[in-house]
Amino acid sequence: MRPLPLHIGRRLRTGLLGCVLAATALVVPDASVQPADVELVKIQQAGGVSVGPDVVWILAVGSDARRGQDMLRSRGDALQLVGINTRTRAATAIGVPRDSWVDLPGHGRQKINSALYFGGPKAMAEAMTRLIGIRPEYVMVTRFPFFEDMVDSIGGIEVDNPRAFSDPYLKKDGFRPGRIRLGGYDAMAFSRIRKGLAGGDFDRSANQQRTLRGIHARIRSQADRPGFIERGVMTVLKHMSTNVGPADLYVLAQAVAQVEPARITTCVIRGRIGSAAGQSVVFPDVAQARRLGDDARRDATLKGC
Fold first, then answer.
1. Residue span of the signal peptide, if any (predicted)?
2. Assigned domain for 127 exists
């Protein structure tokens, strides 16, 4: 793991674990608890595409695996490639529609979210590398029920919702447009609903990014409250499994904690909706995906979308 700048202040260090808990659910592991609701896997780098020396890339995956099922062999329902610049405190999130139709070595053409099912975190990271041109250093997988509990544990979040939408199963009364407050269940529904959105999978991915922004903002606003960080840490400690050592977790947490809200940029990979192998899929705009990768690889900043 690359060293972080030495100018990080005491206040930043106090809040760093809280940012990780809420924004990416990264904490020191407790391997004695099974099954885990959060899995953090460090991907061993074997060459690949070079990134900037100050940039850390994390692939965040939301899993709909049920309790008792192996999350690391499930199909991801939310895919966000997150880059953090430890020098400039900038961050970016590149959303990938889960139904993106791509080549998976050894399995032919498949939806990109099935890479996790076929080959685990390493295959999921490789699929992202082939599409975007950025190799994530970490893959973090979280079950949705735990995501709900985590949002509730920080007191809910606020997001800017650009349009009204609903879903007969997840949210019958729907979400109104404008600034809205979300508890755990509503944050999950806001992030997962697709059929009630005009842009389908693309709009859902954008809503996932709005949710991450809301979580990050909530943590930053509450980090100085006595006991707030500690309660969050204890919540996640009981539910996590990882191959990452405590020292690396601490450094990774510092990277997340540095992020300035005004320096967060986001984009969702576009594409064309169609059908293949008897199923509805997204044919991703590979040229755009590569352009986004080239744009953000070295500094975790998107100049456009």
1. 1-25
2. yes
DSSP state of 281: E
Confidence at 12, pLDDT banded by 50, 70, 90? very low
Asked whether the predicted pLDDT for residue 204 surpasses 80, the reply is yes
**230: Cβ–Cβ under 8 A, 6 or more apart, which residues?**
none
CB–CB of 161/177 below 8 Å?
A: yes
Beta strands 55-63 and 76-85: pairing type? antiparallel
Write out the DSSP string of 81-139: EEEEETTT--EEEEE--TTBEEEETTTEEEETTHHHHHHHHHHHHHHHHHHHS---SEE
Residue 221 included in any domain: yes
Q: Which pTM value belongs to this model?
A: 0.84
Calculate the alpha carbon distances from 121 to 14, 19, 32, 50 in Å.
Answer: 30, 23, 21, 20
Number of structural domains found in the chain: 1
| pLDDT tens digits along 71-104 | 888 888 899 999 999 899 999 999 999 999 999 9
Domain of 59, in residue numbers: 10-147+212-296
Closest by CA to 64, choosing from 72, 51, 55, 76, is 76
Q: Are 72 and 120 in contact (CB under 8 A)?
A: yes
Amino acid letter for position 89: R
> Domain holding 261: CATH number?
3.30.420.590
